[in-house]
Write a structure and sequence with these properties.
heterodimer, A: 240 residues, alpha+beta, Glutaredoxin, Glutathione S-transferase Yfyf (Class Pi), Chain A, domain 2, 2 domains, four-stranded mixed beta sheet, 4 strands, 57% helix, 7% strand, B: 243 residues, binds glutathione, EC 2.5.1.18 (chain B), transferase (chain B)
């Protein structure tokens, strides 16, 4: 058995893994796991990842979870251009720095934005108070500013003159609030120009394909009561 | 200028960096006292605009984030290969752990210091139900740590000690220092802790953990400084974010 990737393109780390594998011509079998239908909570998937999260990778009898670990594994196992994760020690350290920073910063805020703005009210049928939503959006704003000031600065990409794993992980996060209807690039010309560069580097078609699902998040039909009940505690744990 | 490390030995990620560097990497220690609010000073903000420790500085190269610092140090300096081995799968296991650690260990195990020491210093109080929720989250995370990551191996990523073990142990030590018996009833994890500490050496562990091990005593004797007003806003925000 070759490489298998368990993904749901609704999930931002899954989109990063998907784009990376496709862009670099890495052959894989896609194993779709539909989160909004609770497929990640099945016994079958628990065999792959007992933590019941996507993305997950299987390569023969080696199983791996966590998007950053998966991206780095693919980078090392397959021949991919150096700029994704440079050999140069300092350049690479800056990619590692971003990948460590984003977990509790951009990732957290983009996820909360999607849930508070769309997934709770529309999909789960649970209203979110305007105060809560405002606080979430304010935190997102602070994080976007950090992304621009501390990481992008005046460079073409987050860690230097070329695209790297950092940019891929960042853009797939930012498309979460975009999917929720937030104009994250408005009034941020630097970030907007960066987005164009990342899209161009990835390829417009692949970028569009990977983001089709999230851009339709607002039109998801409401969850049925059983699914909602199953998902609720896990969602609450994930977005705190 | 050689290698400079900006650290506060109350901070868990700083412990990990300190202990790792003490294994034969020459560096200048630049102490940043968080309780005194030195991280929000102008000088330190020039080093790290995010106002967090640890930070590495080498000439004009500046690097934040403990995981990135540890990887950089292990690649740049002659350190034993087992910390960050080049074997594809073992290294992947280390990164898998570090990703999960950022989500499930880092935020959770740092909370007791805030509820027991830092919040009271600011005259703030964390509600009992949040403390209980945090305790439950720690238990859940310990269970995963034992079942999914440690399993029946000697260390988290295999039979040898790696950066993953160092990062994990340092987070766990903080609540332990504050009186949480995290290892009680968890013989496998307790044995793992014993192995990691034995590997690091009692002396180095003692030295690195000194400040955190005496924190309750210092707090009881009112020896800790009250954080300066400049640090209040970020500290209160951190306290409010405790789920
Ligand atoms: N740190 C992990 C995060 C994985 C994660 O939280 N995945 C989410 C989707 S974005 C998930 O599977 N959630 C389902 C659940 O927790 O019930 C990574 O980067 O891979
Ligand atoms: N993910 C970072 C975390 C750094 C961090 O949160 N440092 C804390 C001390 S443990 C800090 O400097 N806090 C000061 C503040 O946020 O105001 C790492 O691993 O280096």
């Amino acid at each position: 058995m070759g490489l298998e990737l368990y993904l749901d393109l609704l999930s931002q780390p899954c989109r990063a893994v998907y784009i990376f594998a496709k862009k670099n011509g890495i052959p894989f079998e896609l194993r779709p796991v539909e989160l909004i239908r609770g497929q990640h909570l099945s016994d079958a998937f628990a065999q792959v990842n007992p933590l019941k999260k996507v993305p997950a990778l299987r390569d023969g009898d080696f199983t791996l979870t966590e998007s950053v670990a998966i991206l780095l594994y693919l980078t090392r196992k397959y021949k991919v251009p150096d700029y994704w994760y440079p050999q140069d020690l300092q350049a690479r350290a800056l990619v590692d720095e971003y990948l460590a920073w984003q977990h509790t910063a951009l990732r957290r805020n983009c996820l909360r934005t999607l849930w508070h703005k769309v997934m709770f009210p529309v999909f789960m049928g649970e209203p979110v108070s305007p105060q809560m939503l405002a606080a979430t959006l304010a935190e997102l704003d602070v994080t976007l500013q950090l992304l621009e000031d501390k990481f992008l600065q005046n460079k073409a990409f987050l860690t230097g003159p070329h695209i790297s794993l950092a940019d891929l992980v960042a853009i797939t996060e930012l498309m979460h609030p975009v999917g929720a209807g937030c104009q994250v690039f408005e009034g941020r010309p630097k970030l907007a120009a960066w987005r164009q560069r990342v899209e161009a580097a990835v390829g417009k078609d692949l970028f569009r394909e990977a983001h089709e699902v999230i851009l339709k998040a607002k039109d998801f039909p409401p969850a049925d009561p059983t699914t909602k009940q199953k998902l609720m505690p896990r969602v609450l744990a994930m977005i705190q | 200028m050689g290698l400079e490390l900006y650290l506060d030995l109350l901070s868990q990620p700083c412990h990990a960096v300190y202990i790792f560097a003490k294994n034969g990497i020459p560096f200048e220690l630049r102490p940043v006292d968080l309780v005194k609010g030195q991280h929000v000073s102008k000088d330190f903000s020039q080093v790290n605009s995010l106002q967090k420790v640890p930070v590495l500085k080498e000439g004009d190269f500046i690097l934040t984030e403990s995981a990135a610092i540890l990887i950089y140090l292990s690649c740049k300096y002659p350190t034993a290969d087992h910390w960050y081995p080049s074997d594809l799968q073992t290294r992947a296991r280390i990164h898998e752990y570090l990703g999960w650690h950022a989500d499930c260990i880092r935020g959770t195990f740092g909370v007791p210091l805030w509820t027991q020491v830092l919040a009271p210093l600011m005259g703030a109080q964390v509600p009992e139900e949040k403390v209980a929720r945090n305790r439950a989250a720690m238990d859940q995370a310990l269970q995963w740590l034992e079942d999914k990551f440690l399993g029946d191996k000697a260390f988290l990523a295999g039979q040898q000690v790696t950066l993953a073990d160092l990062m994990a142990l340092e987070e766990l030590m903080q609540p332990v220092a504050l009186g949480y018996a995290l290892f009680e009833g968890r013989p496998q994890l307790a044995a793992w802790r014993g192995r990691v500490e034995a590997f690091l050496g009692a002396e180095l562990c003692q030295e690195a953990h000194g400040p955190i091990l005496s924190i309750l005593e210092q707090a009881a004797k009112k020896l800790l400084p009250v954080p300066p007003p400049a640090a209040h806003a970020t500290m209160l925000r951190r306290i409010a974010r405790i789920p």
